[in-house]
Amino acid sequence: MPTSDALDELVNLRDLGGQPTGDGVLTRPGVVYRSDAPHPGDRDPAETAAWPPRVVVDLREAVETQDEHPLATVAQVHRVRVLEGLDKPETDGSVHELTLLYEGMLQGAPKKLVEVFRQVLEADGPALVHCAAGKDRTGVVSAMLLGAAGVRQDAIIADYVRTDKNMFRVLQRLNEAPELPPGVDEEMVAEFLATPTQAIERVLEIFDDHRGAAGWLSTHGVTDDELDRWQEKFLQK
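Above: the chain sequence. Below: its structure as tokens.
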């Protein structure tokens, strides 16, 4: 399916700034963005505080990244393949497959997630975190980054589900969206493209078992100094 001019830009991009913590402090804009995968020739987004990013963390697997990254000439690109080597989740239908996938990332790739945290922490300017759709791998990382700054769980969930309205265009950019027959609109297929809240809620439950995302990161080697620097960098105090 050819990509239209309307899709010659990131369609699942957002700044993680402006999110509220439990103390009412907001996260700082222009620190970290999340998105679907950039394509060669994409137009610069108009809604971000600063573009291009200085650092890009690409969470995709090797099979998804055969060419040079489109932002490699303007940003330092780090490839962190968070799904590499993980067992494929199996389900009997009682647990959503994405819930199992997200659990698998936290249990099977903590060192890689810590690496992502540190790349964003040390970025000298805006950092962009993305996978293919900007939904699952990016969703778990975003929950980790927001949670480590003390962002409220309801805000983390709300950010996650914002992808719902973007998924049809994401699939078009991935050349995976079907042509809709006459009389069928995007709303009618929305349920097939949804981001299930139970999946990201399970991530937050796992973080809660470690006294939050900051505690989870600490369990896996992140220092108190790094966590303090992250909050200083990401919060508007």
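DSSP finds eight helices and five strands in the chain.
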